[in-house]
Amino acid sequence: MLIHYFTLLKIAESLQKLKGSKIIEVYSQDKDSSVLTFYNGSEIFNLKYSGLANFECIFLLDSAKKKANAINLLQNIYGETLINIETFENNRILKFEFSYSHIYFLFFGKSKNNLIYTNKKDIILFALNDNKSLQGTKFEVPSIGLKNFFELPKETEIIKALSNCEINLGKYYSKEFLLRNNIIPTQSIAEFSEAEISKIYADAKEFKNSILKNDTFYILENNDNKILFSLIALHDYSKIRYESSDLNYLIHRTYSIRLSQHKFNSLYTRLFQISKNNLDRSLKRLNDSKNIEKVKNLSNQYKNYGELLISTMLPNQNGKDEIEVIDYEGNTVIVPLDKKLNIIENANKYFNKYKDLRRKIEMSDNQQQDFELRYIEANEIFDELQKISNLKDLNLHLKKYNHFYKKFMETKDKEISEKFRKFEIDSGWTVYVGKNSENNDELTFRFAKPQDYWFHIRGASGSHTVLKGNQNITPPKDIIKKAASIAAYYSSQRNAKYVPVAFTQRKYVRKPKGANPGAVSVSKEEVVMVEPGLPKGEPIE
């Protein structure tokens, strides 16, 4: 809802006070985001733009502290006056018109978000995302093409009709409208009479106007603890977390809460896996140490077998898989044999097994107390972690057990960096590239999951490349192209203009029996033409 068209209209209204101000600085210190600083002669305003996927928004900051690693942007625009702030009907774009240039803020979702800086003729001078391919082209506001409500197919569900027609309510406001009017969302247009449909349309337009007239805004929460910013109260999000007429404050607050939740989920998932693995490993070691009696009995049996074989004084028994011998108490014992070995060699084999198990027993006796202590600590860490539900407590937990987590986190990161090159090409999408034939195989067949995407230069030698992201989302075309460009860059065709790169899901890649390291067969693939390059510069690791 932060990038809903109605929200952008309200944001545009709230930012009108910036008109007449001069832009004095633009910088970026976070991925896919920037801060624009304005000065009106007496007051400084800091405008935050975030194009980070799932965190798209724009708002005024109460204060901004520029970090040491911040990158200065758009220095040619410094000193220009903001003349106008413009929106486009039903389009998620804000346009800032300056004395000699324009800045467009695009809120199209995922990788299509962007900040675009143009001259007066809308020739792109810089783009925060995908600058290499956009620079020098003409920016044009895309047509939205929302359909007329009365021209939609009769089988269309009423909630989808209201969401996608020219009224442009979207799914949340559409559902709220229908709930308030006791209309079932899944009913089709055909289930209503012409008079009923006309009334629904008229009432929906009035509902839209009431939303836009509202001057109290909300941060809401549903029963699943999901946070939502809204211009009105909603039935499905019944808990009001914050309520205010300060739109920028609430958008900033929503952004911060959701970003904190994202950081919490990412860190929690990693710590959970580490602590759970450690607990399982500690429990196994402890159980193994407690089951040492079985090992002791087995070691004694091996020793007995060896002594009985030595004492038999029988000729070589090559080719037999067992032998009957009489023990010291007159009992018949069947001793298994290795057919390839003679009696003495079989006896020595049992003595060696006995010695190996005795070392294990001695080690276990010395370490059992240590295993118990380790299991207690592992259980304590895992139990405490499961009770944590916010980022502050999670960071305190990480600090408390830093001695434990650090060794696992550093080891894992080091292993990945030593074997593969790593690129964060967009929010939620990471590319890994093999460094040699051996770890090409490891990258593809051990590190990659079946649903990950796999890339390789077509018809030439090159590194295996794997794209990881949300397993439930198909990578957008621009993400595919960025990953393919990296694969092309790390190939023998690096200096070519455009090259073909094959890509497919990892599950369609096989290792032929007896094939050389790095050699694979692919049962299903697509091909994309790209220019070799590194979209985000050098690898992270």
What does this structure look like?
This protein is of the alpha+beta class. Helices cover 39% and strands 23% of the residues. Strand 8 and strand 9 form a beta hairpin. Helix 3 (158-164) crosses helix 4 (170-180) and helix 6 packs antiparallel against helix 8. The chain starts with a helix and ends in an 11-residue tail after the last strand.
List keywords for this structure.
single chain, 541 residues, alpha+beta, ibrinogen binding protein from staphylococcus aureus fold, Helicase, Ruva Protein, domain 3, six-stranded antiparallel β-sheet, five-stranded antiparallel β-sheet, 12 helices, 39% helix, disordered C terminus
Portion of residues in helices? 25-40%
* Gyration radius, rounded: 33 Å
**The number of domains:** 4
Tertiary shape = elongated
Strand content: 15-25%
Amino- and carboxy-terminal Cα gap:
35 Å
Structural class: alpha+beta
Report the count of strand segments: 23
CATH class of the largest domain: Mainly Beta
Give me the side-by-side strand order of the main sheet: 16-17-19-18-20-23
Indicate the CATH topology of the largest domain.
ibrinogen binding protein from staphylococcus aureus fold
Summarize the biggest pleated sheet. Answer: 6 strands, antiparallel
Per CATH, the architecture of the largest domain is Roll
* Tally of individual helices: 12
Indicate the low-confidence ranges by residue numbers: 537-541
CATH superfamily of the largest domain: ibrinogen binding protein from staphylococcus aureus domain
